[in-house]
Design a protein that fits this description.
This protein has a four-stranded mixed beta sheet with strand order 1-3-4-2. The protein is α+β, with helices and mostly antiparallel strands and 180 residues long. It has six helices and four strands.
């Protein structure tokens, strides 16, 4: 062998020997990679006066009107005075935790409507406590024969809806009426 060949052979041999004879050393725990990035969840902006919040009362009225239309009745229109009466009654029921058509002051649905500024000729009221959504509240009323009869009475022209949260609730009141 020539000198250059011996050098290459010996270098190769040395490299082989070094690799084969070097003990494996523990390198320690794995090096952490870049931190993981989690995309933050998007939350819609809070309603402003230009973007009204979705209102369960409007959903109740819309659901009631769908059932009334299917039954051949005209839709009822929301009235602020009936909504005030219904809301006050829902709050009263939630505060006293009792589901009843008679207010704690002894008032009837017609009394509450008159006190809120509506002059009723014909009145009806549907109550429930517990359903989480407007659709569930209306479905519960439609499954009850007396409440279904109230909702499908074609003589009613106006509606008011009150919803109050609280233990045992939400507490729902639907007031239906026609003026004298």
């Amino acid at each position: 062998m020539t000198g250059a060949g011996r050098t290459a052979l010996s270098t190769g041999c040395v490299l082989l020997t070094v690799l084969a004879c070097t003990p494996m050393a523990w390198a320690g725990p794995p090096v952490p990679g870049p931190p993981s990035y989690e995309i933050p969840r998007w939350h819609p902006p809070a309603p402003t006066r230009w973007q009204p919040a979705r209102r369960p009362a409007a959903d109740v009225t819309a659901a009631v009107n769908r059932h009334r239309t299917e039954a051949g009745c005209p839709p009822v229109r929301p009235r602020a005075s009936l909504t005030r009466a219904a809301q006050a009654h829902s709050t009263d029921m939630a505060r006293h935790r009792r589901l009843t058509h008679t207010g704690t002051d002894g008032s009837s649905p017609a009394d509450r409507m008159r006190a809120a500024g509506y002059r009723p000729g014909r009145t009806g009221e549907a109550l429930t406590a517990g359903p989480a959504t407007a659709g569930a509240a209306v479905a519960q009323w439609m499954a009850s024969a007396p409440h279904r009869a109230i909702i499908l009475t074609c003589g009613y022209t106006h509606a008011g809806v009150g919803i109050t949260t609280g233990p045992g609730g939400p507490w729902w009141t639907l007031d239906l009426a026609a003026r004298r």
